[in-house]
Amino acid sequence: MNPREYSAWYHKHHPGYFAGKSKEWMKRQPESRRKALHTKGNRKLHTYLTAYYKLRRRILGLAMSKPSFTAEEKVAIFNSPHLTEMFQRTQGN
Fold first, then answer.
1. What is the rounded distance in angstroms from the CA atom of residue 56 to the CA atom of residue 87?
2. How confident is the model at residue 1, as a pLDDT?
3. What is the 3-state secondary structure (H, E, C) of 33-93?
4. Residue 72 and residue 75: Cα distance in Å, rounded?
5. Residue ranges covered by each domain of the chain
6. How many Å apart are CA 36 and CA 6, to the nearest integer?
7. Biggest alpha carbon distance in the chain?
């Protein structure tokens, strides 16, 4: 058997095995990585998270300079009270 035939056979005879493995793999990933994987299809949430992480890095002192934001990220910041407050904290530093 070639590998593709074996893989097809395994999927047929062990349904759900790989789904369980991918679920276990997801559980082992850090929370931030899991969020990033789930937001690939959701552009609005992805933009929000990107802005959040940029602000968070700045507040924690991990960023070397002030963050630069795209236009979409600026909209997300000013539409969210939490991100707006974080943004104001970065301006004070």
1. 9
2. 57
3. HHHHHHCCCCHHHHHHHHHHHHHHHHHCCCCCCCCCCCHHHHHHHHHCHHHHHHHHHHHHC
4. 5
5. 1-29, 39-93
6. 32
7. 65
DSSP state of 7: H
The two tokens of residue 58 are 């700045």
pLDDT in tens, 43-62: 788 888 899 999 999 888 88
- Per-residue buried b or exposed e for 64-87, using 16+ beta carbons within 10 Å of the residue's own CB: eeebebeeebeebbeeeeebeebb
Position 39 confidence tier, pLDDT thresholds 50, 70, 90: low
